[in-house]
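A note from the maintainers: we've had questions about how concatenated examples are separated. There is no special marker in the raw files; a new sequence line simply starts the next protein. For clarity in this README we add a label.
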Amino acid sequence: MSNLELINLLQRITGLTAFVLLFIQIVLGSNMDFWRKKFGSIALKIHIANGLLAYTFILLHPLLMIAFRYFLYGKIDPYYVFTDFCVLCEKPYDYYINFGRLALLSVTIAVFAGLFRGANLWMRKNWRKLHILNYLAFYFVSIHSYNIGADSSTKLFIYTFWFFQIVVLYIVLSKLRQLLLKLRS
């Protein structure tokens, strides 16, 4: 197995694992009160551990892209991987890479909001508003993976992908319903 093949395999593994862990994070975080009643304080510990693990895989995925491009082109180019946004992209691939970049940015803000939720009064009051970016990150990852993921055409991925979409959409609609009911009363 060549360096490029190994890096590509690791990139696929980290991308798919990050997607699954982000889904689990949303399911756990969307109804933490329920999980705490059922499992006690361990629920929050699992949520935090899963979040850190998910973020690790999310970070590894683009770092492996830097390594892949190094072995392909012979130069290290983090600019392309992290910041080379385009609105009118030359290739559809670059357009969908943007969704990965946006997901990384969204989830980074959400992770830091969770980690520093007790840092000051403003964070104690507002960290959840920033943590909601995980939902946005999930949809950015979904668009990114569905359109350029190497495994996106396999049946297992397609079934898992649509199951995740339905569950997260249900969670989002439930949260919006709760918010509307709260605003009405």
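[label: protein 2]
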Amino acid sequence: MDLAEQLLDSWRINCRINHDLLFGLTDDQLCAPLAKGKAVSGQFAHMHNVRRMWLRAIDQTVGDKLIKLERGEHSREELKAAILASDVAMAKVIADGLTKGRIKNFKPSPAAFVCYMLAHEGNHRAQIEIALRQIGTPLTVEQEFGQWQWGKL
């Protein structure tokens, strides 16, 4: 597998981790607030909205096809639909950028863009874990460590 395919594979694994987390939460966990900041559902909405923001900066026609999740509560199904759409759009932009050797409006490289996006989404998954611990309903051991089983994903 060449480096471009490895980076795309890493993006896809990241997306599966997000989906596993979203669908592994109870309804109460999904609505859990942070002491400060976005509720758990808001963390997922924010990840999607940042993807949309980048997609609009890279190719406005692609980004504008995605809905913006406004502030407030979002159902699991709304989040799933939005995140699935931005998963696919981001994968295409990443693949095109890796082929061309650049991603419009992002420096230094397409590989750095993938790493940037993975770091951003990992940060928000950590905020979700913190929120759930604060309300006394932490992730299960399987959920927590499952995020690190990239070889199985």
